[in-house]
Design brief:
two-stranded antiparallel sheet; 3% strand; disordered N terminus; FadR/GntR family transcriptional regulator
Length: 249
């Protein structure tokens, strides 16, 4: 009976390649193996050492930069920054290794980005609106050609935060990085692949609704559109996670 119970327990969810490399480098920094000012291995070295693609390495660097752990000097390389104070409150995207934690981040985003969208509708400039449009066009183009969509999705939300006129919204979005985009976790957890086409179509309509409200300076409409977008993502992500839990039992 005991053996049957053990066998029936859900399997551990596999981490994405990006998560794996982030955790490896984060541990090296925290353990002191990589110290402040040390240069990280080059892209080619990491690709060979970890057996991953250049795209994965660049996403790893993006997450570590967003977490404030490294800085990249163009043409030189990436270097370790001072470790964050352990006594202060921290949001560290590199430590989000479970679906439950990602859902918690989505709840945080709902609380923050609804108001950010409302303020963006009031305060956005024409140039900022153009940046949002460019991010959406890039996202739609990427979806059509199955290229990287998470980065463009992230930039769209980043543009809204910047248009809010409140730098703290921008700081938090920049700190969290592309790891806040559920699609990166859907892929790593092998969730939702059966319905990617309708999923992407829904995201397109939701993003366009947010953009349209911001464009016409409709604060309440922007808040409602952002609430619907993030709440539906959280709901679908949670349902897909539950289905995966049942499948693995």
């Amino acid at each position: 009976m005991t053996e049957q119970r053990i066998l029936a327990q859900p399997k551990c969810k596999p981490r994405s390649l990006t998560q794996q490399v982030v955790m490896v480098l984060t541990e090296r920094i925290r353990s002191g193996q990589l110290k402040r000012g040390d240069q990280l291995p080059t892209e080619s070295q990491l690709m060979a050492e970890q057996g991953v693609s250049r795209t994965v390495v660049r996403e790893v660097m993006s997450r570590l930069q967003a977490a404030g752990q490294v800085e990249t000097r163009h043409g030189i390389g990436s270097f370790v920054l001072s470790p964050p104070c352990t006594d202060s409150f921290r949001l560290d995207p590199s430590t989000m290794v479970t679906i439950r934690e990602v859902l918690a981040i989505l709840e945080l985003r709902i609380a923050l980005e609804i108001e950010s969208a409302g303020l963006a509708a009031q305060r956005r400039s024409d140039a900022q609106l153009a940046d949002m449009r460019a991010a959406l066009d890039e996202l739609n183009e990427g979806a059509a050609h199955s290229t990287d969509k998470a980065s463009a999705d992230y930039r769209f939300h980043q543009c809204i935060a910047q248009a809010s006129g409140n730098r703290y919204f921008t700081d938090i979005i920049n700190h969290l990085g592309t790891g806040i985009i559920p699609r990166t976790w859907l892929d790593s957890a092998r969730l939702g692949h059966h319905d990617q086409a309708s999923y992407m179509l829904r995201l397109k309509h939701e993003h366009e609704a947010i953009y349209d409200a911001v464009a016409r300076r409709d604060s309440e409409g922007a808040r409602m559109a952002m609430r619907m977008h993030l709440s539906r993502s959280k709901e679908q992500f949670g349902q897909a996670h539950e289905e995966e839990e049942i499948r693995l039992r």
